[in-house]
Design goal:
Blueprint: E1 7-14, H1 15-23, E2 30-34, H2 37-61, H3 67-76, H4 78-88, E3 90-99, H5 131-141, H6 154-169
Antiparallel strand pairs: 1-3, 2-3
Helix pairs in contact: 2-3, 2-4, 5-6
Length: 170
């Protein structure tokens, strides 16, 4: 990650992230949110998986020996675990939630209650978020949307139509 444009994020507070924010002079425009234990587990494992994939990609691309040997040597490397733990260790139990726009641009207000970066069961119970409200908030806060739908009713599309129109105009 070399740039942090304005927008919504779900990034763990790591040394590398704080350095990037400082280098890009974004400290005044960052919004952070504390993370509870359950959410911290996901906040740590997702970047670890990405960093592991990047590590393996670099090591495998190095071209030393057969593909099997490169994968085997990479996974057995003592540096791998040290690198993963250092790069993904949170400085504090918090996540970056937003880089706010430079005024006079309006701030992003709608945040999903259950970000798509986390698993959530939307039951339709009276006190839980509805699928409609979460989709509307995701559309209001994302820069791209890919949908795979196995079933849908026209009434659902009609209800989301204003959010879809607003999304396609931006």
């Amino acid at each position: 990650m070399k740039d942090l444009p304005q927008g919504l994020y779900e990034l763990l507070d790591t040394e590398a992230l704080e350095e990037l924010i400082k280098d890009l002079q974004l400290s005044e425009r960052t919004r952070w949110e504390p993370v509870d234990e359950q959410r911290l587990f996901h906040a740590i494992t997702l970047p670890m998986a990405k960093e592991l994939a990047r590590w393996l990609q670099r090591e495998i691309a190095s071209g030393r020996g057969t593909l099997y040997d490169r994968i085997h040597d990479s996974i057995r490397s003592q540096h791998l675990l040290e690198h993963l733990l250092h790069s993904c260790m949170p400085l504090e139990p918090k996540i970056l939630t937003q880089i706010t726009p430079i005024p006079p641009e309006p701030e992003i207000i709608k945040r999903p209650d259950t970000p798509l970066s986390e698993s959530a069961l939307l039951t339709g119970a009276s006190k839980s978020p509805t699928l409609y409200s979460q989709m509307e908030k995701e559309l209001a806060s994302c820069d791209r949307a890919d949908w795979l739908v196995s079933f849908i009713k026209f009434s659902g599309i009609r209800r989301l139509y204003p959010a879809l129109q607003a999304f396609t105009r931006t």
